[in-house]
Amino acid sequence: MDEIIIKDLQVYAHHGVYQQETEKGQNFLVSAALETDIRAAGMTDDLGLSTNYGVVCRFLSAFLTEHTFKLIETAAERTAEALLLQFPRVKAVVLEIQKPEAPIPLPFGTVSVKIRRGWQRAYIACGSNIGDRKAHLEAAVAALREDRQCRVQRVSDWMETTPYGGVAQANYFNGAIAIDTLYPPEVLLSRLQEIERAEARERKERWGPRTLDLDILLYEDVVMEEEKLTIPHRDMINRDFVLKPLAQIAPYEKHPVLGKSVLELLDEVKMDGEKHVLSNNE
Hints:
Blueprint: E1 3-13, H1 19-24, E2 26-35, H2 39-44, H3 53-66, H4 72-86, E3 92-98, E4 112-118, E5 120-128, H5 133-146, E6 150-155, E7 158-161, E8 172-181, H6 185-198, E9 213-219, E10 224-225, E11 230-231, H7 240-249, H8 262-272, E12 277-281
Antiparallel strand pairs: 1-2, 2-3, 3-4, 5-8, 5-9, 6-8, 7-8, 7-12, 10-11
């Protein structure tokens, strides 16, 4: 990924734990490496196809002077988030905030924090078999579109499927959603559960009926196994009702553990696995 680099932008602001820091203020130095594609701008000499670093500098200065934080860790976190939300061409940012006048009673050059934050691609499985199934799924897509921390990129067809797991219940509509998000995996999970609750989701029985079910299938190349969250989704490789809609929107996305594409995984299920997909409902 290309970079636009800003070094040592001087900003006079009021961040700090101590009262004199927030009242009097001090100088901060801000550096940012903006990860973005500048090929089109370079080939055409058109600033409109790039991110104007002058505008970015003014934005950084204004944000840091208009807000006050105790910690430069917080200042960096909030500034990076605001920058990514403001400039749509920026995929990620490496941001460093230096505090050369920090109240340290020893000789030193500077203290700083440096973070990298960016938009991450995630794939979400969605399903519903209670009430207006299509309405529940579309409500989930709408909620993600309205969330500033998420950008919906693609949505599969809604496919009618038979139940999985042996519990007697009505057929489902299933689909998949591709999003770019600023949420880390655990926070994204919490956000998806909020959306489920808004659609009156109740967790009474494993593999039982539900108004809305949202699962993180893949999140970049993340591999994690925690008590509440496993990525990649543990059972996605066995479910044609997950893989078929996912193959519509990300056929060549690789499973980070198995190294196989979604299409390859779907072909394996078609050959040897259970068949649940009945139709597309567009």
